[in-house]
Amino acid sequence: MPSIVEAVGNTPLVRLRRVAADLAPEVTVYAKLEWFNPGGSVKDRPARQMLLDALADGRLREGVRVIDSTSGNTGVAYAWLCAALGIPCTLVMPENVSHGRKAFARALGVEILFSDPMLGSDGAILKAKEVVADDPERYFYPDQYANPSNPAAHERTTAPEIFAQTRGRVTHFVTGIGTTGTIMGTSRGLKRLKPGVVTVAVEPDDAFHGLEGLKHIESSIRPPIWQPEGVVDEILPISTEEGWEMAERLVHDEGLAVGHSSGANVAGALKIGRRLKEAGQSGCVVTVCADRADRYFEAGRWSAEHTW
Fold it and tell me: Which pLDDT score is estimated for 115?
């Protein structure tokens, strides 16, 4: 391939067996392992698409810096992609994101601006917009929450990969609400390939939750790309406890060390699988494991002994 930029996508899809052992044999649950992307997360897909689209249409050009708000994984994606493409980069993130993500971004020459951790990802969005408003000619602001290239990346890549990897057998797609790009784009793509696919958005069950990277949509700034009507069939609430406990089960029972949003995604997928079992139906449920647990190890941020 011409460069590392072309290495995004085509991540493995693996069947979950031990955590899904209580399901009927006719119900299978699969997880797409997005940490196999070069930057270690699902966010490589939209970040790459947003940058390449902006380079193609001239919004991103010589002398212009990339700036965006991020809770972590998108920032890592911007960091390595901008380094590979020779583009300067500024990231705005809540001050409480993991040390590893900050260190990785700094190692790649990224300028980091911090927002109030109590305001979460919404605070980072507001601060990024303030910085751009002060000097609009200096920055290209992809605005991952409003940029159609975000869901387009998943519609063009994630959806057809899932369809091909399941040989068209996918019946349900389950993933979390963050920027909403993954659920919106993948759902659109899968419904285009197979109109009967049921799509389910996993949402934290409370505004004050411990599932980093996920949004409680009613208490958050609504991302402009979040247009679920006719695309997302259900919003499924998952608790912080369910997400954390499933993350630990996945590492012990499946050998998959994943972050808590991935734990929540799998917990949601298993709930859908149990519904199918109770209804006497077959199904192929696919979810996304967005990143690995090692981005959360420090200061007890991953251990179940942590008190949230």
Answer: 95
Given this model, what pLDDT does residue 122 score? 83
> 43 catalytic, yes or no?
yes
- Weakly modelled stretches of the chain, pLDDT under 70: 71, 297-308
For 195, other C-beta atoms within 10 Å of its C-beta total 7
* pLDDT for res 298: 58
The secondary structure of residue 87, as a DSSP letter, is -
Per-residue DSSP letter, 295:
G
Alpha helices, DSSP H only, in the chain? Answer: 44-57, 73-85, 99-107, 120-134, 149-153, 159-165, 181-193, 240-249, 260-278
Regarding the domain delimited by 44-140, which CATH topology (the fold level of the hierarchy) does it fall under? Rossmann fold (3.40.50)
Whether 4-36+148-300 shares its CATH topology with 44-140 is answered yes
The answer to whether 127 is a known catalytic residue is no
Which residue among the candidates 41, 71, 187, 261 is catalytic per the annotation? 261
- Rounded to 5°, the CA angle 187-188-192 comes to 115
Enter the tokens of residue 201. 């958005």
Fold entry, domain 4-36+148-300: Rossmann fold (3.40.50)
Q: CA torsion angle for 145, 63, 106, 301 (degrees, to 10)? A: 0
Single out the catalytic residue among 32, 43, 127, 191: 43
